[in-house]
Design brief:
The structure holds two protein chains of two kinds.
Chain A (H helix, E strand, L loop, with lengths): L9 H4 L24 H8 L15 H4 L21 H13 L4 H11 L3
Chain B lengths: L2 E4 L8 H14 L4 E6 L4 H8 L7 E3 L7 H6 L5 E6 L5 H8 L3 E7 L2 H24 L7 E8 L8 H12 L9 E2 L2 H9 L14 H28 L1
Parallel strand pairs in B: 1-4, 1-5, 2-3, 2-4, 5-6, 6-7
Helix pairs in contact in B: 1-8, 4-5
The chains are: A mainly alpha, B alpha/beta.
């Protein structure tokens, strides 16, 4: 008898729980994911409002003062304004900062690397 | 096999509750289970680190856009759940892209269902992106109705309308719903599993237990079926 007034017996109170009856055989451990291009993933989700909610890393003074401005252009210049998703922006600016390149030099370097 | 994302950009839809109930029940049934807590509020990490539960469930917190792939690659459990934040973010879309299955918990409210639509569209678009490198890649999903009236209690006309709209739109959903139960709130208050709540005498614990058992059964059955379909291709 387990209740305060002895009116309820443990055996009466016990309800059979369906514990442990689920067959979980055949579920192998999670495998390593194939590589995913996050830039493509982010671009697909952006139109549905899925944008980065994480703060952009604050650039240190050393990182922001590393690039050199080219004083004289050897040919006429054009403007290219590009709107892109945050992750692409972070990758591109991170790349330019890492190699201390101006943005136009970074584009040139990437084009050269792609053989264009 | 499965990495399971639990996602709805609407807050309060029952993502963490669903994740914790499913994960702890599977762990208790003998599976090795891990939860990646990708909600900035870290509700499941708090449950695990500040509670006294003896569950074998592993919880990893601090999941960010930058470390998601690395953390996921380090896991070798049978089931990995990703509990996502209640907002549309890059972390959410990336998690969906890396998952084998997505659960979209939805309360019977128009706002919830509209936000769930956003998650569904994101799943479909992420699937298309993934198919560029692997034509057979699928990201299946199911909507899970949450906080529904207990069996036998009256169902609101709003819920009936929403359910019929889901059927009309051919949105796949779980047959089992997660009912509104005191016990589901209590697991976060007491920081225990449903099975460990026994002596706390919270509401109709047996009915809550039965509800989760049915949901886990349906989840396992669904995952097996999806696996069979993939193998047969």
């Amino acid at each position: 008898m387990s209740s305060k007034f002895g009116l309820i017996d443990d055996a009466d109170d016990a309800v059979a729980r369906p514990e442990g009856k689920i067959d979980l055989s055949g579920f192998a451990p999670v495998q390593k994911r194939p590589p995913i291009d996050f830039a493509e993933v982010d671009a697909a989700a952006a139109p549905h409002g899925f944008v980065s909610r994480e703060a952009t890393p604050v650039l240190t003074e050393a990182a922001t003062h590393g690039r050199r401005r080219r004083a004289v252009q050897s040919e006429p210049t054009r403007h290219l304004a590009v709107r892109m998703v945050q992750s692409q922006y972070d990758r591109f600016v991170g790349y330019a900062d890492r190699y201390k390149l101006t943005y136009h030099d970074a584009i040139t370097k990437l084009l050269d690397a792609a053989g264009e | 096999m499965p990495v399971i994302a639990v996602s709805n950009p609407k807050g309060g839809a029952g993502k963490s509750t669903t994740t914790l109930l499913l994960a702890t029940y599977l762990a208790q049934s003998g599976a090795s289970v891990c939860v990646l807590d990708a909600d900035p509020n870290q509700p499941i990490m708090d449950w695990k680190t500040n509670g006294l539960s003896k569950t074998t469930l592993k919880v990893i917190g601090g999941i960010k856009e930058s470390n998601l792939m690395e953390v996921l690659d380090a896991q070798n459990d049978q089931f990995v759940f990703i509990d996502l934040e209640g907002t549309a973010s890059v972390l959410v879309s990336r998690s969906i892209a890396m998952s084998d299955f997505v659960i979209i918990p939805v309360q019977a409210s128009a706002v919830d269902v509209r936000q769930a639509g956003k998650a569904i569209r994101a799943v479909k678009d992420e699937e298309k992106v993934a198919q560029r490198s692997n034509l057979l890649r699928k990201i299946p999903y199911r909507v899970l109705m949450t906080r529904t009236p207990a069996p036998g209690a009256p169902v609101s006309s709003v819920q009936r309308q929403l359910e019929s709209e889901l059927v009309d739109a051919k949105v796949p959903r779980f047959r089992t719903s997660l009912a509104e139960r005191l016990a589901y709130k209590a697991i976060f208050v007491e920081r225990l599993t449903l099975a460990e709540l026994g002596e706390h005498k919270v509401g109709n614990l047996e009915a809550a237990y039965q509800n989760i058992h049915e949901l886990v059964e349906e989840l396992v059955e669904t995952l097996r079926e999806l696996d069979r379909n993939e193998v047969s291709k």
